[in-house]
Amino acid sequence: MDKIFKLNKREQLLVQFIMLAWVAVVLIPFGAAVLNALKPNVGQVFREPFGLPDPWTWSNFAKAWVNANFAQYFANSTIIAVSCVVLVTFCASTTAFVLARMPFKGSTFIFICFLFGVIIPIRLALAPLFDIVRSLGLLDSLLGVILVQSASMMPVSVFILVSFMKGISTELEEAAKMDGALPFTLYWRIIFPLMRPAIATIALLTFVQAWNEYFLPLIFLQSEANYPLTLGLQRFNQQFSIQWHMMFAGILIMMGPTILAFMLASKQFIAGLTQGGVKE
To answer: What residue spans of the chain are helical by DSSP H?
Structure first.
C-alpha cells in the first residue's frame, strides 16, 4: 500500500520526538498518580512524589471506596452513563437514518440545527434548561441529568452518524425494499449493523462525557444520594483534602471505567472516525 505521506529521516525524527513528548506528558502524571495512590501516608507523597511506595499499600483503594461512599456514587455514575449511551445511540441513529435516507422538506434545516448544537455549548442555554427541568419535576433526579446530558451529546452524534451513513451503499436497502421491507426493518436489519464503527464511536464519546461530567450534575442535583462520582470525589476532597494518597486512589477509581472503555472499544472507535463507508 502506497504511503500518503513520505517523510525524510529528519522529519521522521521530528514526528517521533513529538509523539514521545506527548506520551511523556500523558504518562508521567498518570504514573505519579499510581505511585502516590499506593503510598502508606501523605508524608511519602510530599517527600518523594515520584518515588516508589514503601510499602506498597493496595488497601488505599478499599479505604477510599468505603470511606468516601464510592459504591453509591459509582452506581449513580453507571446508571447515568449507561442510560445516556442507550438513549443517545438509539435516538441519534434513528434521527440520522431519517435525515440521510428519508429526506423530506425541512430535513436540511433540521440537520443545520444539529450543527448549531455542535457549535453552541449547552451551558449557554442553562437558565431556560433549568426552568424546563424544574417545571417537569425532574430537578434533583437521575432522570433529569440523563435527559440533559443525552441532549447535549445528540448534535455531535447525529453529525457523525449522518456523515457516516451517506458513505454507505444503498444497494442492500433497495433490494430489501423490493422484498417489502418496512423503514424500521431497513434501519434495524441493514443500516444499524453497517454503522457499527460509528455507533461504537458515539457510544464511547457519550460514555466518557457522561461519566466525567461535573457541571451539569452540580446544577441539577442537590441530594448527596444522587451524586455521581465527579461530585462524590469533590466531597471526598473536602473530607480528606490533606490525605493526598487517598485522593489519588479515589481519582484512579474514577478513571478506571473510562480507561477500560477505551481499551475495549479503541479499534471500533478509530474505525468510526476514519471510515467513510463500507468497501464495495
So the answer is: 9-37, 42-47, 59-67, 70-101, 107-119, 126-135, 142-165, 171-178, 183-185, 192-194, 196-212, 215-220, 229-239, 244-274
Distance CA(78)–CA(262), nearest Å, equals 16
Look at the domain 72-239 and name its fold: MetI-like fold (1.10.3720)
- Return the pLDDT at 278: 43
Gap between the Cα atoms of 219 and 228, Å rounded:
12
Residue spans per domain, the chain: 2-63, 72-239
126-161 burial string, b = 16+ CB within 10 Å, else e?
eeebeeebeeeebbebbebbbbbbbbbbbbbbbbbb
Q: What pTM did the predictor assign?
A: 0.85
